[in-house]
Amino acid sequence: xxxxxxxxxxxxxxxxxxxxxxxxxxxxxxxxxxxxxxxxxxxxxxxxxxxxxxxxxxxxxxxxxxxxxxxxxxxxxxxxxxxxxxxxxxxxxxxxxxxxxxxxxxxxxxxxxxxxxxxxxxxxxxxxxxxxxxxxxxxxxxxxxxxxxxxxxxxxxxxxxxxxxxxxxxxxxxxxxxxxxxxxxxxxxxxxxxxxxxxxxxxxxxxxxxxxxxxxxxxxxxxxxxxxxxxxxxxxxxxxxxxxxxxxxxxxxxxxxxxxxxxxxxxxxxxxxxxxxxxxxxxxxxxxxxxxxxxxxxxxxxxxxxxxxxxxxxxxxxxxxxxxxxxxxxxxxxxxxxxxxxxxxxxxxxxxxxxxxxxxxxxxxxxxxxxxxxxxxxxxxxxxxxxxxxxxxxxxxxxxxxxxxxxxxxxxxxxxxxxxxxxxxxxxxxxxxxxxxxxxxxxxxxxxxxxxxxxxxxxxxxxxxxxxxxx
Length: 471
Ligand code: NAP
What we know:
This protein has helices at about 15-25, 35-45, 60-65, 80-90, 105-115, 130-140, 150-160, 180-210, 215-225, 230-240, 265-275, 280-295, 295-305, 315-345, 350-360, 370-380, 390-410, 415-430, 435-445, and strands at about 5-10, 30, 55, 70-75, 100, 125-130, 140-145, 165, 170, 170-175. The chain has about 475 residues and is an alpha/beta fold. It folds into two domains: about 5-175, Rossmann fold; about 185-430, N-(1-d-carboxylethyl)-l-norvaline Dehydrogenase, domain 2 (Orthogonal Bundle).
């Protein structure tokens, strides 16, 4: 007998927690998993939530448990598994039902899956879910894209299980096709940049100012009371404070300095490059993780060139805080600019203010600044955050600090690829007369690509001298 409000396929870390979250919010959820024993385990361990959960290891029986029109969340490993699940599920669904991929899909896959279902009457939603395991269990940020009509089937449940900011759900419909997964991809790109800039500032404290992890933790704790107030700054202080049980050392000092990546940061940089939008700080963060992975080469490089001197930084902590704020604004400006361009290209009409709103709670990049960003974007259509009045003021106040820190890092031989690229982006963004007039001249010289003139309309070519050596 059909009785579940929503179905969920995939009882991995995220799926299991999302199902419990749904049940906890008073909705009945049916679950299915490829390995059927996980369904039994899930049902057996549901405790107080047992009245709201049901499930079956047989897909057809699972579907029969769902109220029509059916909403089925797929939370399995991204990539081919999603296509396999859709192929099995589709014959069991009817017009008006909706399939919801909640994994970290590449948005191009979402666009394809969306169009494959187009005309079948079965809706498709690609939703970005951020907040990790905790978020899935207690309230993630949910970025929805896909079929606008069938979104209504799942809207109530998805909004109910999402994080809340001042009572407002951090879940919103953002556009058709792959809009939701695209926004999640850029969210992750910004997350990479945010994390890398924090790591660079930690590097200045550790190597440039000789501070201990506990001292650094104290500074991040203080910063979390000011404009940098955010989940990532908060967890940074906890990571720096943790002590390794085995050695008694600060845990951060026994963790290997090689960062992993699953691909969403890279996708975000690739999308920026494909769209022709400058997102150098996000690209820098991806590259920083890549060079971190080359540990053997870095150790060899240190032997070749000598280790950077310690204790050479001159900046004070207030300047570091301001620099991080300026770098963060530049990184977000880039992320939002990528979304604005993608929106234009795909006809999504992405609401930048509402994207900032649903990032205010639940997700990894949640921060006080996002509330200000949502207000800034709600005032107008200008896509670049650097042109929004409140942020103009903040950048005017803080870019000097970013400049000081980047210069200090250069002289102290400390790498700061993201802070450095954030500064370069800002300086380029506000440089009315750039230097690519020379580039255009060079392009015309070797490839007759032509150039424009300030004083006349049209395309021009110059007859450059030939550099072919006389025979
Ligand atoms: P996962 O390891 O990515 O996926 C585990 C689930 O996928 C299991 O239920 C597994 O079933 C199922 N699965 C794998 N291959 C399958 C196939 N060919 N056919 C059917 N089912 C298959 O677990 P996860 O960490 O919960 O992630 C789920 C999704 O959420 C991913 O897209 C991930 O990128 C995304 N995500 C994860 C996080 C996070 O913090 N972990 C955060 C946001 C988003 P079996 O039990 O049968 O193996």
